[in-house]
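Task 17 of the worksheet. Students: predict the tertiary structure of the chain below and write it out as structure tokens. Keep your answer in the requested format; marks are given for formatting as well as content.
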Amino acid sequence: KFTAFIAVLVVAFMAWQTFTAIDAAQGRLDREINKSGVLLVTGLVTLFDPRWVEDPASQQDLQAMLRGFLQSPGASQVLDLVAYDAKGQAVTTATGRQRFDRTLGRPVEDRNASEAGVQIVELLYEGMAVRSFSKSIPRGSSSQHESPFAGHLDVHLSAAEIDESRRDLATAMTKVSVTACLVAALGAFLLSSFLARPIRALVKDMKQVSLGDLDHQSRVRSSDELGDLAHAFNVMTASLKAAQEAKLAQREMEHELAVATRIQTRLLPSDIPPAPGFDIARHYAPAREVGGDYYDFIRIDEGHLGFVVADVSGKGIPASLIMTMTRSLLRMAAKGETSPVRPVELLNRFLTPDMNPGMFVTLTYCILDLKTHEMRLVRAGHNPPLLYSAKQGKLLVIQPRGMGVGIDREGSRFASELQLQRFVLHPGDVLVTYTDGIVEGKDGKDRSYSDERFREVVQANAHLGARDLAAAVVQDLAQHERGTEPSDDVTLIVVKAT
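Model answer:
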């Protein structure tokens, strides 16, 4: 392949070079021929006596002069010379022809000939291809009404000899090109044979590795680029072995992660419990396969519905495990409790000892009285919920005191800080609980979505149903984060009194 490539490359280059050189050489040959023809016809015209074409008695002298020139050694390519009078009638020829056949021919452009007053035409003269050089013969003196020229002289050069000169030139240059191509092909063959030997050895090594033998090492030991290639091959083989082991470990991790994802998905509520008089919607989107956000709906009894939104510090599997523990403990603590205070205190008491230092959980736990429409709410260090009052037509920020679960290891300060918030949801009122993945969402310039923008979107869409309001928030957040990867989990619960 290397030989064929070099041969094709050299042939193509030499063909182009030969064609260009032949074209340039033939052009130069044509110019030289034209130059010779111009000089020839110009020199002959300077020797002319105008009376030779005007006086019939002098035409024998003209024919003798033309015949003498035609028979001279320097006129080997000249086929004939024809003199014409001022009317364009042939007066005499060097060959003595009285009548001859002549086509109109094709003019040949030549700047030097035009400057010398010579017209070049390629035509057929007596059936032979010729290149004719024609120049006017000036009069010695003329009256006002007479032409300044007594006639013109045509010098016919053999086009066959011109073509033969072209062919000889092209043949000589082609022979040189063919010889160069053959030498280059031979050199390429010898070079490729020299290079192919260690390459074949490397190919055998690669086949051995491709069969799964990642402990195989190449034995090519040269100090050139092929030796470097063999060394790189050995390094690559070792890297492949390490990568294969890492890939197996990654597959095992991905399998475990998939199992954790399925478990977490099952732990999150699949349906929203019925709540007469209320329109409830939720949205959950983890930033990774498993997330640290958590939401849940807890049926306390027939008249009370609890719901929680929580955020575990960190992400990934550790956060997912803490989220699972939070869900289990809160569900157990919430049984029969119509106030959210005690379940959250119990959650902090039992979860904190199992959490690593520095980890914590923030949450908002709400219990809705379905009969009185009273909402009881505690906030353990979480983002403050938003309450839209339809009566007042404005958005309120609910900020009861509270600290994150897991921060206070003793538990006494956590209980003293936890404050209960109570309010009634009137028709048209909307309560929005969420995680910081919304307000901290980043755009391409690392700018946060912000609490202000979030509150503006909630207030502008509070007249909509819960599902449409949640969709409006999610859509506006997606526009803000367009072109970037989500940096945190996003959880949102909207409760609207109807």
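Marker's comment: The longest strand covers residues 128-138. The CA atoms of residues 100 and 126 lie 6 Å apart.
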